[in-house]
Amino acid sequence: DGTKYCRYIQIKISDFDQKQTTEFIEETWTKLFPTFPFAYSYLEDDFIAMYERETQTNVMFKYFAILAIIISCLGLFGLASYMAEQKTKEIGVRKAMGASVSSIVLIMSKEFIKWVAIANILTWPLAWYFGNQFLDQFANRTKISAEIFILAGVLSVAIALLTISYQSIKAAKQNPVNALRYE
Predict the structure, then answer these.
(1) For the purposes of burial, counting CB atoms within 10 Å of the CB of 154, is it exposed (0-12), middle (13-18) or buried (19 or more)?
(2) What angle in degrees, to the nearest 10, is found between the helix axes of 146-173 and 88-96?
(3) What whole-number distance in Å separates Cα of residue 22 and Cα of residue 66?
(4) What is the per-residue burial (b if ≥16 Cβ within 10 Å, else e) of 103-120?
(5) How far is CA 139 from the centre of its chain?
(6) Who's near 69: CB < 8 A, 6+ residues apart?
(7) What 3-state class would DSSP assign to 8?
(8) Angle at 151 between CA 148 and CA 155, to 5 degrees
(9) What pTM, to 2 d.p., does this model score?
(10) Which one-letter DSSP state was computed for residue 145?
């Protein structure tokens, strides 16, 4: 009696006539092992079910990442507004002395870019470590390359620049007389 030693049997069948082949296998199984019910599943379906949790987690992470980016952009926008308000007189003096709009935008952007770059450099080792920990649970895994981190850094700087550019350009285009009127 081979049923003591075997829990599963894997049979490779062609895609040509799956229904008839499955019916034949069920008839043969019932003849050989009448006390054991015939239950089958396709390996492809089993793999899909096995990775369904990861797929759902992936979707959830995407939504939370988008939400985190939106919240951080709102925070950056608020900080840029506050900084532009605080530096109104400095920007007015620079404009009166002949500074261009691009140089004022560059001055305002440098501070934010510095902090975004520092945040990226501090989080890269943590992302690498936890990413590898997550990938270790899979049989077929990929390596985490440095290009991913560089791309993430460039994208975060670009998003930060886009977020603060409105406030920076608005502050740089203001008439310096308005800023210096009460001095």
Answers:
(1) exposed
(2) 70
(3) 46
(4) ebbebbbeebeeebeeeb
(5) 22
(6) 159
(7) coil
(8) 140
(9) 0.66
(10) P
Q: Other CB atoms closer than 10 Å to residue 30's CB: what's the count?
A: 12
**52-109: per-residue pLDDT in tens?**
888 898 999 999 999 999 999 899 889 888 888 888 888 888 878 888 888 888 888 8
- Please tell me the total number of residues recorded for the chain in this structure: 183
The predicted-structure confidence for 24-57, as pLDDT tens digits, reads as follows 999 998 998 888 888 888 888 888 888 888 889 8
Q: Spell out the long-range contacts of 125-129 with Cβ–Cβ below 8 A and sequence spacing 24 or more.
A: 127/152
* Cα gap 122→52, rounded to integer Å: 32
Q: Which is nearest to 173 in space by CA: 95, 106, 90?
A: 95
Question: What tokens appear for 82 in the block?
Answer: 């506050």
- Residue 4's identity, in one-letter code, is K
